[in-house]
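PROTEIN DESIGN WORKSHEET
SECTION A - STRUCTURE
LENGTH: 184
TOKENS:
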């Protein structure tokens, strides 16, 4: 009926007509997507400019000491001096006793006490209970294996200076463990 070139022309005309509508819709979607991407790009460019400004500020202030850093340095220095004073007083004025007792089964245990420090503005008190096993059963018999429990109480003046980081905000503490002692 129709010749091949006419059929081909007819098919191409229909295809071209059908293809134009989706292409127009795709163009609208592309414009919308491009608008969204431009907004995102503008937001990122603004953030990059803010970061570059902050980097410039930090680089300009790199050689300067901040007030916070200076205050922290002064606190650390003051704390170090206070700790040194307390350690000297501990060594000079502490009264510590160590008693070794034996129970009915002849098992020895230590009882150590550290009393208030004399001449300080605060107070520190500790007690240690340490049951032990030794070869020979005498005072100087070694080796010794000892379980210990220590409880300590200190005044607010020593808060943050006694017991290290775990007890930085405390005024008392408990410690326990195992000790071994040997002489040769």
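SECTION B - SEQUENCE
RESIDUE ASSIGNMENT:
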């Amino acid at each position: 009926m129709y010749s091949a070139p006419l059929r081909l022309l007819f098919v191409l005309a229909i295809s071209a007509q059908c293809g134009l509508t989706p292409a127009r819709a795709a163009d609208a979607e592309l414009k919308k997507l491009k608008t969204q991407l431009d907004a995102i790009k503008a937001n990122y460019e603004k953030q990059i400019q803010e970061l570059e400004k902050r980097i410039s500020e930090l680089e300009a202030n790199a050689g300067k000491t901040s007030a916070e850093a200076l205050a922290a340095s002064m606190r650390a220095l003051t704390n170090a001096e206070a700790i040194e004073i307390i350690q000297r007083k501990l060594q000079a004025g502490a009264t510590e006793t160590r008693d070794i007792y034996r129970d009915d089964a002849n098992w020895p245990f230590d009882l150590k006490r550290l009393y208030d420090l004399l001449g300080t503005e605060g107070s520190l008190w500790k007690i240690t209970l340490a049951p032990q096993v030794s070869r020979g059963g005498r005072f100087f018999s070694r080796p010794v294996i000892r379980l210990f429990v220590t409880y300590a109480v200190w005044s607010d003046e020593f808060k943050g200076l006694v017991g290290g980081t775990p007890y930085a905000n405390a005024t008392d503490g408990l410690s326990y463990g195992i000790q071994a002692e040997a002489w040769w």
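SECTION C - NOTES
Residues 89 and 109 are 28 Å apart (CA to CA).
Residues 4-60 form the longest helix (57 residues).
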